[in-house]
Amino acid sequence: MTAPAAKMRVNGEVRKVKRANLGAGLSGMLGVAVVALTFASQPLAAKAGTQAGSQAGTQAGTQAGTQAGPVDLTKQAKPAPVVAPTATPTAAPAASPTVSPTAAPVEAPTPVPAPHWTQSDAQGLLAMIKGIGAEGLFPRDYQPEALSAAILKGEGPELDETATRLFTWLAEDLRDGRTPMTARVQWFAVDPDQDVHPTSLILADALARHDVKGALMALLPTVPDYAALKAALPKAQTQKQAALIRANMDRWRWLARDLGTQYLLANVPEQVLRLTVRNKIISTYKVIVGKPGKTATPQLAETVEGVIFNPTWTVPQSIVVGEGLGARLVNNPRQAEREGYKVTKAGDGTIYVVQQPGDNNSLGRMKLDMPNEHAIFLHDTPNRNLFNLPARALSHGCVRVERATELAMTMAILGAGMTPDDAVAAHTSKVYTKVPMTKTFPVYLTYFTVARDVNGMLRSFPDIYNRDAPVLATFAQPRQLHTTQRKSNEEVIKLDNPL
């Protein structure tokens, strides 16, 4: 039986949209949303790191053919030549202000003394430094000998200064990552943790509660993947395997510690997208990512602002002009309509071509609206047979998603509060329909070459963009100062046709 009509916003107007009979296929797709809502209503477990990567969905067991077996990093593709990180240029000092002869001399500010450290708190810091190898970092980077010597001399300014300096280094590496930004190639995801957990407050809390270890351990990533990497590190059979595990542990520190209650995370080397609710993997989707080179998919942390059912696609000028599509269709509106295009010619002679919604639309039947300066987004594709390929680095940068209709309806239900009937109606209407998100729904485009698969097993994945070598090079060198740069200085490559 056909359900009653539902109201929704279509093309900017509130319309009645006929609800369709669900049918077996759509009912199966909505099962993912039901499971996700169940987890969303439950309290978060105290120890997220122990949670298994369970999942639901009609095709949750399907996986990318690119997965290698259990971690065997000796079979990784040959890495790119090691590139030494570029030193951050020193900024020229600002010009001193002009002071008149009668003005009073400007006094230099009095340095703020380091906070007081008890020997007991300093011993706690020393113990953390000596055991920090378990977190994929190196004790030598934090000068345990200097701290031991200061402790032996007793409490005083030297201990205060030494302990404060080393605590700061360690806290910032645990919070932000050890890898300098220059070695994080095409990593544009901005980590907000410096604002959420300022170093000064972390230090003040540690000394006030006399719990240095607790303050530092609270900075660790909470995702189960990090816990799996940490557990695998002491079992590494080769130095190369251990180095890659450390590098991927550090990559988790490049992201926000709190990824959100519900979020999407795509791992480019794995070529898989996860829908995660409260650290539980609810469903996974094969994805098609950018080809290596200028069309490689960049690493981003963005927010989904809306789900677009039956999207239109504005054809880029490289195709309209470069491939002659505009000239072929501008004077033949019937042909344009048959092929699914709407063509307009501006007063200056520029031809604009917009592909209308439909099964042959280049964006497929769904697009996630996630505004960003790279013009990268997640969308469906009419060429769904490509998801059967084992290697799927085929796009111009955007991420094409398998079972995109299932994902779109689940997102609309989870993030916009739509009913299942309305989500189905939006999809089957075949009319451009944008559903704004009413809940925060982050999306992360990441790059992990060692990570958990959907079954919770740690696996290695091909380094398709040769991103490991720069990170490994920095881990082979002493720690650099000032590794807390927040934004990449790399050029943003915005392609005319990022599909």
TrEMBL record:
Query: Mind telling me which InterPro entries this protein's record contains?
Result: LD-transpeptidase_YkuD-like, LD_TPept_cat_dom, LD_TPept_scaffold_dom, Transpep_catalytic_dom
Q: Which PROSITE patterns match?
A: LD_TPASE
- Region named Disordered: 78-109
Q: Which UniProt keywords apply?
A: Cell shape, Cell wall biogenesis/degradation, Membrane, Peptidoglycan synthesis, Transferase, Transmembrane, Transmembrane helix
The protein's annotated pathway: Cell wall biogenesis; peptidoglycan biosynthesis
The record ties this protein, via SUPFAM superfamilies, to:
L,D-transpeptidase catalytic domain-like
Highest taxon of source = Bacteria
The family annotation for this protein states:
Belongs to the YkuD family.
The molecule here is called: L,D-TPase catalytic domain-containing protein
* Source species of the chain: Novosphingobium aromaticivorans (strain ATCC 700278 / DSM 12444 / CCUG 56034 / CIP 105152 / NBRC 16084 / F199)
Query: Source taxonomy lineage?
Result: Bacteria, Pseudomonadati, Pseudomonadota, Alphaproteobacteria, Sphingomonadales
